[in-house]
């Protein structure tokens, strides 16, 4: 088994790490305080090709695999978790359904500008999708007429293209919901700001309210009634990407705590030289390395086209827990300073907790692991 990082992947990681340190980290606290998405920074990421990193070159992407995308998100989250989450929402939640289920015309019309970064995509996370029935779409000739609301749409206020899931029939056996592509300029669509979250504040969400909004049937994704299946496929593929961001925010917290511990002195020597603090730092590094290896395995399995396996939710669960635990320890090392906004420890903790629960609770993740155990002999 080869654990070495391919040369090309190593170069991409280094490029993204440098970008994060230079462009993201210096202003991360300001963006967090304002709770506002920074479009110019996203445009700079698009110039690096990151907006379409997993999609084919023919549609404006880099044609990279899940392993590369995971590594990119980890490095971004290390500097600014909100920016990593914004890219995740754009590519993994909004662009992915079009790439996976769109027609050729839909891919040319919508996926290409999304992959090139010319337009910004938005979609709801899985927790928000539990409110499918709040949005109704009724077929009327060649159109669907939308009425209702879609909550928790990441980057909705800044986005150009949305992927929404609406109730189009009786929700029996999960066949009553359908996925659609919606443009921001659609008549009858208004965007309503939502209260700022505790974490990931610079990737805010908003609600999409529809009132007699007419959407052409040509903007339907997949079959009528296939929305839940599309959402499930998209979010299953995204698990390792959330885990990667959790590893990244944990790494950011560890780096900040280590730098502070090396600088701060007590009893004639640095905090890092005190055994109690040194043991904390070692434990944090151990947790993160384990989380990173689980995440890389899950991402590698996705890149190989493997069927759903326990590695995906296991990585998501473990990395989410590890990120929160490491962020708490980092705040402890900062002491009272950790509770102030002058230092990044409190932001890392808020972001880590959000990543732990934003798509699925830990309990629901564990519930999804159990049925897969009998299908994977190596797990037990």
Automatic annotation (TrEMBL):
Residues 123-212 form the Acyl-CoA oxidase/dehydrogenase middle domain. Residues 7-117 form the Acyl-CoA dehydrogenase/oxidase N-terminal domain. Pfam families: Acyl-CoA_dh_1 (PF00441), Acyl-CoA_dh_M (PF02770), Acyl-CoA_dh_N (PF02771). The keyword Flavoprotein applies. Gene3D superfamilies: Acyl-CoA dehydrogenase/oxidase, N-terminal domain (1.10.540.10), Butyryl-CoA Dehydrogenase, subunit A, domain 2 (2.40.110.10), Butyryl-CoA Dehydrogenase, subunit A, domain 3 (1.20.140.10). The keyword Zinc-finger does not apply. Keywords: FAD, Flavoprotein, Oxidoreductase. Residues 225-370 form the Acyl-CoA dehydrogenase/oxidase C-terminal domain. InterPro entries: Acyl-CoA_DH_CS, Acyl-CoA_Oxase/DH_mid-dom, Acyl-CoA_Oxase/DH_mid-dom_sf, AcylCo_DH-like_C, AcylCo_DH/oxidase_C, AcylCoA_DH/ox_N, AcylCoA_DH/ox_N_sf, AcylCoA_DH/oxidase_NM_dom_sf. Its cofactor is FAD. It catalyses: a 2,3-saturated acyl-CoA + A = a 2,3-dehydroacyl-CoA + AH2. One of its GO terms (molecular function) is flavin adenine dinucleotide binding. Belongs to the acyl-CoA dehydrogenase family. This is Acyl-CoA dehydrogenase. It comes from Paenibacillus whitsoniae.
